[in-house]
Specification:
It is built from two helices and 18 strands. The chain is mainly β. The chain folds into two domains: 120 residues, no CATH class; 106 residues. The strands form four sheets. Strands 1, 2, 16, 17 and 18 form a five-stranded antiparallel beta sheet that branches. A hairpin with a 6-residue loop joins strand 8 and strand 9.
């Protein structure tokens, strides 16, 4: 099994009682029985999609209702993050960075960057870096996941064709409440392909060991939303077949434990490119659908409340 799923014994003991009581199909209540079509202006990009989702989120009463008290988590010791200078440009220096994979976020702690770094033979490493407040130089590189084995990312890729840098960019959220960094992504680990998640609680510390969200052959886009203890990872379900679905995994413990992995859409049309925003105890998830026979792509959303 994947080495980076092994947490401390103390954490496992603290979680066992709570997780035993959770039912994965009861992690959230849907506020919309069916998905709602969202009109978007022509040429809209990611900011416009997030804006319409956020508009729906802030209108939900649950957006100002925090999650119930979560159980205490034991401290997990992590080593310090690497502190090499990575340049003073708009992005950290990495000659192996995959074009288009760079994700940047401005935070109260400084600037955070995450990207795929090309390691050859279809393999990539997932890397992060910080530029602290008041500093001009990026520091890192901080390894997030280096276990990709790469050469045939998914069975729907012709055998022997290297996916490498053509894979979707990682999903990145930096929480405005506690400053935690949350990253969701898809790769092929030594134990198989799937969707994974990792987080960093302290900018000066390494990322905690990644955990699997779901295993499956067909790898696709992953994005993350967070608000304090609430973390949601949305992804193209790698096990949904030709009529691709969107799914969501929810954590009430700032990403330490994920309580549910739920389908978001009915799968009548192939769905792709998911988005999510989170606040209080509310979520709004958006995605694109296209008719199998061709036609205009639509953007849909669905609201949910975390129990």
């Amino acid at each position: 099994m994947r080495q980076h799923t092994s947490y401390s014994v103390a954490l496992a003991l603290a979680l066992v009682t709570t997780t035993a009581c959770l039912e994965s199909n009861r992690a959230i209540d849907w506020r919309d029985e069916d998905a709602e079509l969202v009109p978007l202006p022509a040429g809209s990009g990611e900011p416009q999609r997030l804006a319409v989702l956020t508009e729906a989120l802030t209108a939900m009463p649950e957006a100002v209702v925090p999650l119930g008290q979560s159980f205490p988590l034991p401290d997990i010791e992590t080593p310090p993050a690497p502190n090499l200078a990575l340049g003073e440009g708009a992005a950290p220096t990495d000659s192996l960075r995959c074009d288009g994979s760079l994700q940047l976020r401005n935070t109260t702690r400084g600037e955070m960057a995450v990207w795929w770094s090309n390691r050859g033979n279809g393999r990539v490493h997932l890397i992060g870096a910080w530029r602290d407040v008041g500093q001009s130089t990026w520091r890192g590189p901080i390894a997030i996941d280096t276990l990709d084995v790469g050469s045939t990312d998914a069975r729907d890729v012709p055998e022997g064709v290297s996916v490498g840098c053509s894979r979707p960019a990682p999903g990145l959220a930096v929480d405005g409440v506690n400053g935690f960094v949350h990253v969701g992504y898809a790769l092929v680990g030594p134990e198989g392909p799937g969707v994974f998640y990792a987080h960093q609680m302290d900018p000066r510390a390494a990322f905690e060991p990644p955990i699997p969200i779901v295993y499956g052959e067909k790898l696709g886009a992953v994005r993350v939303g967070s608000d304090g203890d609430l973390v949601a990872v949305v992804y193209e379900d790698p096990n949904s077949g030709k009529r691709q679905r969107i799914a969501v995994a929810v954590s009430r413990t700032a990403g330490h434990v994920f309580e549910g992995r739920l389908n978001v859409n009915a799968g009548l049309n192939p769905a792709a490119d998911p988005y999510v925003v989170a606040q209080g105890s509310a979520l709004v998830i958006g995605w694109h659908e296209a008719p199998p026979a061709g036609g205009d792509t639509t953007f849909l959303r669905r609201r949910a409340v975390v129990r």
